[in-house]
Amino acid sequence: MQPSWRARDFTFNFPRPALLMGVVNVTPDSFSDGGKFLAPDQAVAHALQLVQEGADLLDLGGESTRPGAAPVSEAEELRRVVPVITSLVGKVAVPLSIDTRKPAVAEAALRAGASVVNDIAANRDDDDDAMWRVVARHGAGYIAMHMQGAPETMQRAPHYTEVVAEVEEFFRDRLARLARAGVTFEQVALDVGIGFGKTVEHNLRLLGAMRRFARLGCPLVLGVSRKSFLAKLAGDESADRLPGSLACAVRAVADGVQILRVHDVAATRAAVRTAEAIAAQTGT
Fold first, then answer.
1. How far apart are CA 224 and CA 260, in angstroms?
2. How many beta carbons lie within 10 A of that of residue 13, not counting itself?
3. Which of 53, 90, 93, 115 is the right S-S partner for 266, CB 3.0 to 4.6 Å?
C-alpha cells in the first residue's frame, strides 16, 4: 500500500509524480547560496521563482546547517523567517515548510501559515518532546531527518557499524516516540540525512538502500542537492554539482523516494518527469 502524507490542509496521496521541495535559505552562510536571499523581499522573490519553475512545496530556513555552522539565536531565526512566511502565504498555493531545530520557531512559523516542520534535529535523545507536541497540536507535516551529532561537529569523524541498519532503527524509534507525542503516522516523512554526519561511503550506501527504507511505509524525503560529496565523487572540488544532483534524484525516485529537496527546481523537474514518463511506459 502506498503512503499518504498529511500536512494541515494539504494531503498528498502516493503514487503520484515526485514532489519537488524548493529550498529558500534566508541565511548569510548556507553552503549553496549563502547571503543571496537574506533580505525578506529577495527570499520572497526567489520562492515565487521556484514555484513558477514547478516547486510543489517550499522549505524555508533561517539557520544554516552546513557542516561547522554555528547556531543562531531563536530571536534571530524568527526575525529572518516569519516575515517571509507571512508574505508568501497570500502569494502561493503550495505548502510552506519551516526548516528548524527550535520548537518556538516551528510554533511561530505554523501560526504564520506554514504547514510542515522539517526537523534535522529529530535525533534529539533526551525526553524533550516539545517539537513533536507542536507538530501534533497543529496537525502539521513532519520530516524526521537522521543526523549523527550536530552541524557544528557532525563531519569530524562520522562512524557507524552498519549505517543502513542504524538509520532504519533510528526511524523505527522516532516513529514510536512521535506516536507517543500525538503525531500520527500520516503526518510523518523520513529523510536519511545525506551529508549530516556521514562520509561519502555512508551517503552512497544510504542512497542505495531507499527501497529498504520505503518498506517502513512513510514517504521518503531526499536532500542531496549540491552537496559536497558530489564534487568529491567527480574528483574535483570545484566541479558543478548539478549533474550529480540530478543523477541522485532520478535514481532515488526510481527506488521509491517521493519528495526531493532541491535548489535547482526546473532542472530537477525536467530530469525526474522524463524518468517517470519512461517508467510509466515500461512498467518499471
1. 8
2. 10
3. 53
Of 139, 89, 143, nearest in space to 113 by CA: 89
What the block records as the C-alpha cell of 28 is 548569510
Domain that holds residue 266: 4-282
Q: How many helices (H) and strands (E) does the chain have?
A: 10, 10
Count of domains forming the chain: 1
CA atoms within 13 A on the CB side of 269: 16
- Residues 180 and 133: their CA atoms lie apart, in Å, by 10
- pLDDT tens for 179-221 read 999 999 999 999 999 999 999 999 999 999 999 999 999 999 9
Strand, coil or helix: 33: coil
CATH number for the domain spanning 52: value is 3.20.20.20
pTM, two decimals, is 0.94
Name the residues annotated as catalytic.
227, 261
In the chain, % helix, strand, coil (3-state, to 5) comes to: 45, 15, 40
At residue 182's C-alpha, the angle toward residues 220 and 140, to 5°, is 55
* Residues 26/36, Cβ–Cβ less than 8 Å: no
Cα–chain center distance at 109 = 16
